[in-house]
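User: Okay, second chain of the day. Same drill as before: sequence in, structure tokens out.
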Amino acid sequence: MKRAILVSGKAPLNLEIKAMLPLVSYQLLATTDNGMEALRFAHRFEPDLIIMGWNLRGLNSSEVLQNLVGQHLCPTIVVLAQEEQHVLNEVIMADAHNVIFYPWRALEMAAAIQLAEHRFTRESESLQKIQHLEEDLKTRKIIFQAMLSLIQLGRYSEQAAYTALRTQAMTTRKSMRAVAQDVIKGFWIPEPD
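Assistant: Same drill. Structure tokens below.
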């Protein structure tokens, strides 16, 4: 069963969410109406979902939402009362995974949870791709820097420098990046042909 944290000070809303969560295979780990405590709970319990209301005690609701979304811990759904429509743009700009207005039907909340989970998964995949591309770019920069070092020695063309790095990587069973770092640090310089 998945685990959820409820961050809200509205008793009727809390009762409805507590009753609805088991229907969508979630168990409630903790409830709080304090923003700072919500952030502590999120790190301590590592939930699969956070459902939060607005007008929290302690830390401002907007800051709590920005922290939760920015730290990319789990899907975050914001539940707003009709009179809180004025903060909708703020919730959207903070990139909440979904927003739903109270009162709601159980099916609407179930759909909101599924959509939030889907958005969170897509976001996670995108972040992983970005991290992979950033690592790839760092590797290319290191290899290029090592090639420049070899070219500046005056003994290598661009192609010969690349070939020397690749040959050393294959011979030593190291990555091209590791060999390039050895060149940059002065640990290895190929012998001229």
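The longest strand covers residues 26-32.

User: Thanks, on to the next one.
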